[in-house]
Design goal:
The protein is of the alpha+beta class. The chain has four helices and four strands; from the N terminus they run αβαββααβ. The chain has a domain of 78 residues: Alpha-Beta Plaits, CATH 3.30.70.1070. A four-stranded antiparallel beta sheet has the order 2-3-1-4. The termini are far apart. The model has no long low-confidence stretch (mean pLDDT 76).
Length: 156
């Protein structure tokens, strides 16, 4: 009886190894390695002009931010403009007004307003410039149902 168990165990282990290494190995198609070409990319243009070649010096890699001109970026470059069209006492009414303005085609949002944080201001925007608001003021007033909007800067 022990011989039969030993032979059965050996047969089972061999069968298991056969299944693992022969039948469950990945297909050859999936074992291929993909390598990127190390050659310089040539850009083809019409025959009238010479073919430009991208040189290695033109590719920017690991360049410090100071060399790329990031020091010329100011905080004021990120200023945007909004127009406050309503100040409401109910957050639900402010959210409804924001939805109405959004359905009218303008971006809008609500924020808590005042020192007691019991008021909610509805803003239309942000816009890139004050002129964008002024040129669309009649539509903004119509959609928001307000004629007393206040334009202000909105920082990110």
């Amino acid at each position: 009886m022990n011989k039969e168990r030993l032979i059965g165990t050996i047969f089972s282990v061999i069968l298991l190894l056969l299944v693992l290494f022969v039948f469950l190995t990945p297909q050859v198609d999936y074992q291929q390695e993909f390598k990127a070409k190390e050659s310089i990319i040539d850009i083809k243009v019409p025959e009238k002009e010479a073919e430009p070649i991208i040189q290695e010096e033109q590719i920017i890699t690991n360049t410090p931010i100071e060399k790329m001109g990031a020091s010329s970026i100011k905080e004021s470059d990120f200023d945007l403009f909004v127009i406050r069209v309503h100040v409401l006492s109910s957050n639900e009414n402010a959210i409804k007004m924001v939805g109405k303005i959004n359905n009218g085609g303008f971006p809008a949002f609500a924020e808590v307003f005042g020192t007691n944080k019991d008021l909610h201001a509805v803003y239309v925007g942000p816009f890139l410039s004050e002129e964008d608001i002024v040129s669309n003021i009649t539509l903004i007033e119509k959609v928001s149902e307000s004629t007393k909007g206040e334009i202000s800067r909105w920082k990110l």
